[in-house]
Design goal:
Elements lengths: L5 E3 L8 H7 L9 H18 L4 E5 L3 H12 L5 E6 L2 H12 L3 E6 L8 H10 L5 E7 L1 E2 L4 E2 L2 H11 L3 E5 L11 H4 L3 E5 L11 E5 L1 H9 L9 H8 L10 H17 L1 H21 L3 E2 L11 E5 L6 H12 L1 E5 L9 E4 L6 H17 L9 H11 L1
Parallel strand pairs: 1-13, 3-4, 3-5, 5-8, 8-9
Antiparallel strand pairs: 2-10, 6-7, 9-10, 11-12, 12-14, 13-14
Helix pairs in contact: 1-10, 2-10, 5-6, 11-13, 11-14, 12-13, 13-14
Length: 385
């Protein structure tokens, strides 16, 4: 049947019908007073979602653009920076830092394991000359399903006194608690196609007052991503360059939906979906690539299929038989894991549907290491118990 494709990947995520309808409206001028009123509401709600009183900038880019903008505006060529890397996206920020002439010092952990917070503490405490100018951390490592202990690491960054925090919250903002002001975070980047429940194309960057001081000190060349222009335009409820008007229409709607759900409800729902998914995977006798529940991402669950079932064949069977798309592994985990997304416009029904389809696909491919219905039963017990 046409038009039944369902995305259970870490992005793009499903989009509410009312957001799709909002995008279908004729655009107004992006410099008009009508659009400025929409931007004012959107800006207020972005601050609410980020739990901050500071600016939350809107960029026409992917989440990678927001993080590159933060790195370029916070740092200068030759700066020492700490970068946490325990997956594909942490490794990306090492590459970006090097591309702009920074000197990254990598704090790593094996794929599937959380970043060692004590290593950040030790490195920052040893920097008595305050040469470290920034610490770059991926909160939810999408490639492995690990949620790093950002709150603890942020405390060590604040104690350092000089370094600013640059946070990849692309799949955690809106799916996990990221209290920007409470944790003293300086640059927090995210993307529209994740928990914001709209298509790709917008990125968001919360910037603290300490962050703005770093922006003024930076000697890095910048133009489109010069955050000072975004701050100036935001005072007029606008952006310095052409704003994707129809994406902002959709964002206005989805932020209203998120606010109606409330922060506690939003985070609790994502936690339930994660826990239900993980319970089902265990009941099916499959492996969890990030086995420690304490550090499991609320956005994505990485699964180790049976050894005799190739990941690409499992994914293809789910798509062909059930019109459900799940993600494969990235980086060194390509072909070794599959990833089930459960963030954004996803409900308990969606998780149960995906688990039932996974059971069917496993059966089709000859796996008999589970009792039929056990995955759905385990998920149901968590989701509705």
């Amino acid at each position: 049947m046409d038009d039944k494709l369902f995305l259970m990947i870490p992005g793009p995520t499903p989009i509410p019908e009312r957001a799709l309808l909002a995008m279908a409206k004729a655009p107004v001028g992006h410099r008009s007073s009508e659009f400025a009123r929409i931007m004012a509401e959107v800006s207020d709600n972005l601050r609410w979602l980020h739990q901050t009183r500071s600016d939350v900038l809107i960029l026409a880019s992917s989440g990678t653009g927001a993080l590159e903008a933060a790195i370029v505006n916070a740092c200068s060529p030759g700066d020492r920076v700490l970068v946490g890397a325990n997956g594909k996206f942490g490794e990306r920020w090492v590459e970006v830092a090097r591309a702009f002439g920074l000197k990254p010092e990598v704090i790593s952990a094996p794929y599937g394991q959380p970043l060692p917070t004590d290593a950040f503490q030790a490195a920052l405490a040893a920097d008595t000359d305050k040469a470290i100018k920034a610490v770059i951390v991926t909160h939810s490592e999408t490639s492995t399903g690990v949620l790093n202990d950002l709150g603890t690491i942020a405390g060590y960054i604040r104690a350092h006194g000089e370094a600013v925090s640059i946070v990849d919250a692309v799949t955690s903002l809106g799916a996990a608690n990221v209290p920007v002001d409470e944790w003293g975070l300086d640059f927090v980047g995210s993307g529209s196609q994740k928990a914001y429940m709209i298509p790709p194309g917008l990125a968001f960057l919360a910037v603290s007052e300490r962050g703005w001081q770093a922006v003024e000190r930076s000697r890095s060349p910048r133009y489109y991503f010069d955050l000072r222009g975004y701050r100036k335009a935001l005072k007029k409820n606008n952006t310095p360059f052409t704003t994707p008007v129809n994406l902002v229409y959709a964002l206005q709607v989805t932020l209203q939906m998120l606010k109606a759900e409330g922060l506690e409800g939003l985070f609790a729902r994502h936690t339930r979906l994660r826990d239900g998914t993980r319970a089902a995977i265990r009941a099916l006798g499959l492996g969890l690539f990030a086995p420690d529940d304490t550090f499991a991402s609320t956005a994505i669950t990485a699964v180790i299929p049976p050894p005799d079932i190739p990941c690409d064949k499992l994914r293809a069977t789910l798509k062909k038989n059930y019109d459900i798309v799940i993600a494969g592994g990235q980086g060194e985990m390509e072909g070794q894991i599959v990833r089930l997304g459960h963030l954004g416009f996803v409900s308990e029904r969606d998780v149960l549907t995906a688990i039932a389809a996974l059971e069917g696909a496993l059966h089709t491919l000859g796996y008999d290491g589970f009792t039929p219905g056990s995955g759905v039963a385990a998920a149901s017990a968590v989701l509705f118990g």
